[in-house]
Write a structure and sequence with these properties.
This protein has helices at about 5-30, 50-65, 80-85, 100-105, 105-110, 115-120, 145-155, 165-180, 190-200, 210-220, 265-280, 280-290, 300-320; strands at about 35-40, 70, 95-100, 120-130, 135, 160-165, 185-190, 205-210, 220-225, 255-260, 295. With about 325 residues, it is an alpha/beta fold. It folds into two domains: about 35-130 and about 250-320, Bordetella uptake gene, domain 1 (D-Maltodextrin-Binding Protein, domain 2); about 135-225, 3-Layer(aba) Sandwich (D-Maltodextrin-Binding Protein, domain 2), CATH 3.40.190.10.
């Protein structure tokens, strides 16, 4: 059917508006960033997470060409930070440097989580992966997981161990289930709180985060027997894995970057490159190694796939460890 002159003018105007809108969007993406960026941390100032976030924020400032402001939004196992980012504008100006497994386990750990991370956030970059560590007093006779296991089996139901945070509880459960002992977990808020109990012999072993674990090993107070990942960490290549020691386990505790769902892909790609470049830089590798972490580089698509896969995986870990919902 032939267009009338009026129909043609309407169509041309609509096309021009659509094209102008498209050009405007492209320009907005190309100009990103044009103002301050806020980087959200779910844990308190001075924590290992806070140190990590502030390192990346400092490195990002000259790359982005704008101030990068760190905000600590603390509470509910990082749920407050997760909700804040999920409800932020999807424009790339609110970045969430997050512990992948902590956020992935949200739906399994809380009766009424404020948001569903898998539906309200996009995981667009990874920075690093690390492991929890099975450790004993440096003065103990146990040099390997096998030696510890043999002794704990003989000790029976009198075995006690320390753990910190949910990964420690899960690692401890997988270990005692694998070797068939009824060990008693003593849960602490942080590694230092359990140190005297370990060193005095009141506790047989502990499951610790790498920042605390490596610090204690360097000081000669504790000995690391194995890490929770299925492959050895490049930052700690001499430490065997639990899997090598005959304990089936692959607890990979990775960190990444999230934004509110709907953030334009060109912006997500730019953010991904920023964090990938920082993590893989010489300074980035050195910083991560001090924390017992290795750089981890993934595309936005790979990161999102890994995060969505982690949600049911960590729900199963929570079930096995019998961690109650709060």
């Amino acid at each position: 059917m032939d267009f009338t002159r009026k129909q043609f003018l309407h169509s041309a105007a609509a096309f021009a508006l659509a094209a102008r809108a498209g050009i405007g969007t492209a320009r907005a993406d190309d100009n990103y960033p044009s103002r301050d960026i806020h980087m959200i941390c779910g844990f308190g100032p001075g924590s290992g997470a806070d140190i990590l976030v502030r390192f990346f924020a400092e490195k990002l400032r000259p790359i982005a060409g704008h101030p990068v402001i760190v905000e600590n939004r603390v509470g509910a196992n990082s749920n407050i930070a997760t909700e804040y980012v999920a409800r932020s504008k999807p424009d790339g100006y609110t970045l969430y440097l997050f512990a992948g497994t902590t956020v992935a386990a949200t739906m399994a750990l809380f009766k009424n989580p404020p948001v569903d991370p898998g539906k309200t956030l996009d995981a667009i970059a990874t920075t690093s992966n690390l492991a929890f560590m099975l450790m004993v007093d440096a003065k103990s006779p146990y040099k390997t997981v096998a030696e510890l296991t043999e002794a704990m089996k003989k000790k029976g139901d009198k075995v006690t161990y320390a753990s910190t945070a949910n990964p420690g509880t899960i690692m401890g459960t997988l270990y005692k289930n694998a070797i068939g002992i009824d060990a008693v977990e003593v849960l602490y808020k942080s590694g230092p709180e359990s140190l005297n109990e370990i060193l005095s012999g009141k506790l047989d072993y502990g499951m610790y985060d790498p920042i605390f674990g490596l610090a204690q090993a360097r000081e000669g107070r504790m000995r690391i027997l194995a890490v929770s990942t299925s492959e050895r960490l490049k930052s700690a290549p001499d430490i065997p894995t639990m899997k090598e020691s005959g304990i089936p386990m692959d607890l990979n505790l990775w960190w990444g970057v999230m934004v509110a769902k709907g953030t334009p892909k060109p912006i997500a790609l730019k953010i991904n490159k920023w964090f990938s470049d920082i993590a893989s830089s010489e300074d980035g590798r050195k910083f991560l190694a001090l924390s017992g972490a290795d750089p981890m580089i993934r595309t936005p698509e790979e990161t999102q796939e890994m995060f969505l896969k982690a949600i049911p995986e960590w729900a199963e870990y929570v079930r096995i460890a019998k961690i109650p919902k709060t």
